[in-house]
Amino acid sequence: MSLDRETIVRIAKLARIDVEDSEIDGLASELNNILDWVETLNSISTEGVEPMVGVGVSKAPLRMDNTNDGDIAEAVLANAPDPAPPYFTVPKVIE
Amino acid sequence: MSKSELLQLDIATAGKGLRDGDFTAIELTEAYLDAVEASRELNIFITETPDRAMADAVAADKSIKAGTSSKMTGMPIGMKDLFCTQGIKTTAASNILGEFIPPYESTISARLKAAGTILLGKTNLDEFAMGSSNTTSAFGAAINPWELTEDKKPLTPGGSSGGSAAAVAAGAAIAATGTDTGGSIRQPAAFCGIVGMKPTYGRCSRWGVVAFASSLDQAGPFARTVRDAAIMLETMAGHDPKDSTSAAQATPNFEALIDGGVKGMRVGIPKEYRVEDMPEEIDSIWRRGIEMVTAAGAEVVEVSLPMTMSALPTYYIVAPAEASANLARYDGVRYGARVEGDDLNGMYSATRGQGFGKEVRRRIMIGTYVLSAGYYDAYYKKAQRVRTLISQDFDNAFHSVDALLTPTTPGAAFPIGEKEDDPISMYLNDVFTVPASLAGLPAISVPVGSNENGLPLGLQIIGRPFDEGSVFRLGQALEDAAQFDKRPRLTLEGFK
Q1: 20 to 30 Å CA-CA from B405: which of A28, B100, B143, B186?
Q2: Is A70 exposed, middle or buried (0-12, 13-18, 19+ CB in 10 A)?
Q3: A54 in reach of chain B (CB within 8 A)
Q4: Class for the domain spanning B3-257
């Protein structure tokens, strides 16, 4: 499996990370090296083996669906870039 | 007591001195604030908090006088800058968090605060804890206080918790917090000649810890002695309803579990850790460790963990996948540094493109790829299945042994700037620590000796889930036998 320039651009777009044109070849070679290396796992038979999603997570804990905070708009907005209280702001999305 | 005498005390002895009235928390804190200032060339702290430290010290003295103090009261500590601290800038060593000031306190830092510890500052780390050398920090690498190499290049303290490890080794903090995803407590502890403990996954709450890979991240202490690590972990650990992966387990008195010796314990030596072209210095320190626990009365047996060499590639699928999901939150909308773009997606991409450093971008892109349509089963699912096999290896081994003894790292601390050209050679630092991370097991690194250049080398003990007691007990046996008393050249007043 080898990632070409087009794939790198697609991954960068999916990840929402701007990548300069001059960086693409370097990234392709680094990512290909890493992928070649992790593909050594293909030699291991995992037929019938359950995937492990985490440690001790077989049963998710439940709690009552109660509000236990709120009314802290000021704190929530305190670190927002360019807020318009009580709102966050984003670039215009509807023409 | 003089400042330099104060700085030589560990948690156990300083606690006694405070309670006996030999000195005050204010005096101890002033000594450490001097040490923090004197160690600035090591770039240990991203943010120093001297005013907070003095306020904490006043409160600690009051609590000691009132007889309401704990074993950690009055202890000046460093806090890895991955733990959110209310009202104190928290950076994760990334530019993308900008001037982020958390409006809340992480559970771990809150527990340490409630126990009366004194916050000296927020310590340097690899950006979002992704790295093994502290060089991916947006604030520059922390520097290892140990002897310089012949070419005088500064050495890495390891990563990702490099600042915390360097602080404790240099005597600029009595102890410090770290987080360990694939080795980020144990490897820096080994590189800096101190003790570092990663408890069982679920032992310490992840609430308020900037997330990297949620199924692996676990907090733990750095300390000068095994006993100190046990004392500090006891304060950090405990069930937290705010973290759904936090284990509903009572926290034992870890300090009491240290004593009792290792007579009759069965210690496994995993033969697969004896890797090809293993450096002689590592092989030899491992052999010495085996002799030490044998002499202390433990029975040493060879065990097999056949999947060992698959752990690192598995980790480099699982961890980046989780990171790509966790780091999706940095979008320039709710917090952090925003970079404007032509439209919403343009703003996201510019913010993330400029805000994340090289290694973080690399891992997000790997993670995005292995989770993308058409590749999910081939990479991510496959890695999760291999993770099951790795975990089963440990289960099988623990049928016949109580704990495992291995090297912590494949070498001693290396000069800053080395291994930077090839990500995989950097990743190989964690070859001995990652398997226990994937299985969620408790593991400690204890300094056991040094190499021919005088640099410290550590050994790792891995235990059964929630059996930190056996890990600490064997760690204490190594510490007692090794009598590792070499200290870094750049040691400040303390810790001599």
Answers
A1: B143
A2: exposed
A3: yes
A4: alpha beta
